[in-house]
Each structure stands twice: as C-alpha cells, then as structure tokens.
Amino acid sequence: MELRQLRYLLAVADEGRFARAAERLHIAAPSLSQQIQALERELRVTLFERTPQRIHLTPAGEALVWRARVILAEVDRAREDVRATGDGRREHLSLRVCNMAELVLDGPLRGAAMGIPGIDVSVASSPGDDAIEAVRQARADAAVVWSRSHDQRDLDGVVLGSVVFGVVLPRGHPLTVAPRVPVAALGHEALVMFPRQPFAGIWERTVDHLLPEGALPGQVTLEPDLLNAPEAVLRAVAAGAGVAAGILGVADHMGIGGIEVRPLEPELRLDLEVVWRGPAQSSVRRLIDFLVESADDPHAVIDPPARPVGGTAGEPISARAARGRSR
C-alpha cells in the first residue's frame, strides 16, 4: 500500500466520481480506476460499490478512508516538523478546547496561545465530541474535553482536575432560600440543557445527577445555541424555561441577570481532561505538561487530582499517563 494510493482513495471518496477525482488529481480517469482496483486486489476487499450514477464506499472502504485521513495527516505533519526543526523554526501545535472549558482554564489557555518556548499553539473552541474526533483524525494535536464516555477512551489522556457544578435557578425561585439545593428537590423541575450531541459524556452524567429518578417526558428542554453556550442556557433559565447546571464560581459571574446559583447536595463534579494520540512527540508532551502544571493553581475553580508518584525522577505527567494506559 502506497501513500499515493491513499491520496487517490480519499479523492474518490470525497468527489463521489472517478472523473471528478481524476480531474482534482490531474491524472487520467482510467489510470485512477486502475490504481483503486490494484489497492482492492492487494487488500482483497471491495472499497467502492460502483453504479452508473455514483460510487459509494463499502464498510471496508469507510474503515480505510478513516485510517487514510489519519495516516496522511500524520505524514504531512511529520514533514513540516522535520523541516521546522531543520531550519530552526518554531513548531506549531493545534489545541482544541471544548465549550465551557475555556471558562475554567482561561489563564492557562492564554498562556499556551502566547507560546511555550519553541512552540506556537493555536487554540480553537470546539464541541466536546468534535474536539476528540479532531485529535483522532490528526486535525488537532491535543484537546481539552469534559468527562469522556467509555467509547472515547481510545486516546491517551490525563485528568487536569474536577470542576464543581451547581444548579442555576430563576431569581426568586423557592429553592433559592436554601444554601444548598438537594438533588431530590429537582425531581419535577424542567431542566434546560444543551443538545446531547456532541456532548454525550457530560450530558448523560449531568442529567443522571440532577434527575436520578429519570427524566419525565418533556422534562428536559434543549437550548440549541451552541455558539453562545453557556450564556444561552443561563438566559433561558432567567426567562423561566427551567433550571440548569452551571459551574460554581463562573456561572454567577457572567453578567446574566435574573438567575441565582446554588451548590448541589450531593455535589456534581465533572472532570476536565487533556487528550492526545499516543505516542506523543516531544512538543505535544511539553504542551500537555504545561496544561497540567497551569491547572494546578490554588486560585482556579478546577481542583487538580492527586498526581501519581514514583517512576523516573522529573518524569513528565504525559509520559506517566501514556505508560499507565499501556499496562
């Protein structure tokens, strides 16, 4: 299997027709078709279902396309990294940050964006599942995400810390008289949430915690405005749409009128993690260790976990995390 064949495969998959893919690649259509057929013979699978109107990927083709995108992105990145090292340029890393995490890690993210010595870091906001997918497909080097679901644990990761969420209530709500709101008292309250996708892990944990007996039909109201999350959710609460979860120490200082925030009993804690594809190159390890160290701030609203002890003296957190995952 050659890299050239993988690039041909992606062009055909993206364009849906051999003729258009050949034009994009600046080669003859028969030659492109022969290359795909050679790849199919080598792998002993059919990659495309061919019809007069259009071609479609088979399950085997879909699996290879996913892998091919990662492989080619890594090859392109390796080429750039080697060139940068050879002529003394700074390395460039891409960091995705899921919604609301930037409210907790504002200082560390600004520090990363300003540049770690020898590294330029571009920071972009992204929904949680999208951030993880960007790392999987090598479109990002690392991502800061909320608690991952079980099927998202194929990436290496380390917990930066836990964040305590409270309940956001409309001003004057009867439950605001309590210093701490029992979760049991929320059983019949309408719950305002962002859409489940792309926040599967944090969404399920939040709803299960606030409504441990299960949600009644229509009890969960969705606020679809992800671009302005979490402000849109807080404004919906202020308008009387229901109650919501909000980060203690953050939700009540965002300038949204008409709401009050109270701690929960029992409290709701959600982890923030930084994830990456292993094995991580040295620049990615430096970024991870910078985030871990920056999150360990006594003035932050994130509570860092007890870090592992032992191992090589001075060993970075990222190396310990990767070694622990390989066991």
TrEMBL record:
<dbReference type="GO" id="GO:0003700">
    <property type="term" value="F:DNA-binding transcription factor activity"/>
</dbReference>
<protein>
    <submittedName>
        <fullName>DNA-binding transcriptional regulator, LysR family</fullName>
    </submittedName>
</protein>
<keyword id="KW-0238">DNA-binding</keyword>
<dbReference type="Pfam" id="PF03466">
    <property type="entry name" value="LysR_substrate"/>
</dbReference>
<feature type="domain" description="HTH lysR-type">
    <location>
        <begin position="1"/>
        <end position="58"/>
    </location>
</feature>
<dbReference type="GO" id="GO:0003677">
    <property type="term" value="F:DNA binding"/>
</dbReference>
<dbReference type="GO" id="GO:0032993">
    <property type="term" value="C:protein-DNA complex"/>
</dbReference>
<dbReference type="InterPro" id="IPR036390">
    <property type="entry name" value="WH_DNA-bd_sf"/>
</dbReference>
<keyword id="KW-0804">Transcription</keyword>
<dbReference type="InterPro" id="IPR036388">
    <property type="entry name" value="WH-like_DNA-bd_sf"/>
</dbReference>
<dbReference type="InterPro" id="IPR000847">
    <property type="entry name" value="LysR_HTH_N"/>
</dbReference>
<dbReference type="Pfam" id="PF00126">
    <property type="entry name" value="HTH_1"/>
</dbReference>
<keyword id="KW-0805">Transcription regulation</keyword>
<feature type="region of interest" description="Disordered">
    <location>
        <begin position="301"/>
        <end position="327"/>
    </location>
</feature>
<dbReference type="InterPro" id="IPR005119">
    <property type="entry name" value="LysR_subst-bd"/>
</dbReference>
<comment type="similarity">
    <text>Belongs to the LysR transcriptional regulatory family.</text>
</comment>
